[in-house]
Write a structure and sequence with these properties.
The protein has about 130 residues and is α+β, with helices and mostly antiparallel strands. It has one domain. The protein has five helices and five strands.
């Protein structure tokens, strides 16, 4: 199996693993990774910019699949930065009424999401490393 395929598979496994786990805790409420993925785009002015790490992650994986490691490295770095932007968000909308509640902590789903983007970035960097001639 080619290196770029292995890197993409590892990243995708981490991404998929983040979905069933809790990503954000807000008081007595738990918001799962899948919920964040499906609804995170709805709040671009309040931390939703971090959600854009998701499409950038997949675009980066696409470029890596076609051996465009430089483009993939840049895009995956942007995705990593965006995932960390979510740490600056203080409140999250919990219900349909639009009530906002303070974020009290982050769950394993959030950290797996970060790990998926970081693994893609590191993998892109590994593929950028020139091959040693023996």
């Amino acid at each position: 199996m080619k290196k770029q395929v292995i890197i993409i598979l590892i990243s995708l496994v981490l991404f998929m693993a983040s979905l069933p786990f809790t990503a954000v805790y807000s008081g007595n409420n738990e918001i799962g990774g899948l919920t964040c993925l499906l609804l995170g785009w709805a709040e671009p002015e309040r931390g939703g910019i971090a959600w854009f790490a998701n499409p950038i992650f997949f675009i980066s994986a696409f470029f890596l699949l076609f051996r465009l490691a430089k483009i993939s490295a840049v895009l995956s770095l942007i995705a990593v930065v965006l995932t960390f932007c979510y740490l600056s968000v203080g409140e999250i909308t919990i219900d349909e009424a639009g009530y906002r509640y303070p974020i009290t902590s982050y769950g394993i789903g959030y950290y797996l999401w970060i790990a998926s983007c970081i693994s893609l970035f590191i993998g892109s960097l590994i593929l950028l490393k020139p091959k040693k001639e023996v």
